[in-house]
Amino acid sequence: MSRRIVVKVGSSSLTGSAGSHLDPEKVDSLVDALAFVRARGDEVLLVSSGAIA
């Protein structure tokens, strides 16, 4: 049975130290983690505040 997993990510989790631009390494890491969950057969919903990113 698959599950629906909601992942809430704050903008600061996706941006670099300056906080004004997306950090590609952080985004890649998040995508890898979400892909792993999808590969298990679970549904993933990603929620972001979008305040900065």
Description:
By secondary structure, the chain is α+β, with helices and mostly antiparallel strands. The chain has one domain. Helices cover 30% and strands 23% of the residues. Helix 1 links the parallel strand 1 (4-9) and strand 2. The protein is elongated.
Keywords:
alpha+beta; two-stranded parallel sheet; 53 residues
The helix content is 25-40%
Largest sheet: 2 strands, parallel
Number of strands: 2
Give the radius of gyration. 12 Å
Percent of residues in beta strands: 15-25%
Which sequence of SSEs, written as H and E, runs from N to C?
EHE
Question: How are the SSEs ordered, and which strands pair?
Answer:
Elements: E1 4-9, H1 24-39, E2 43-48
Parallel strand pairs: 1-2
Give the structure's gist in a few sentences:
By secondary structure, the protein is of the alpha+beta class.
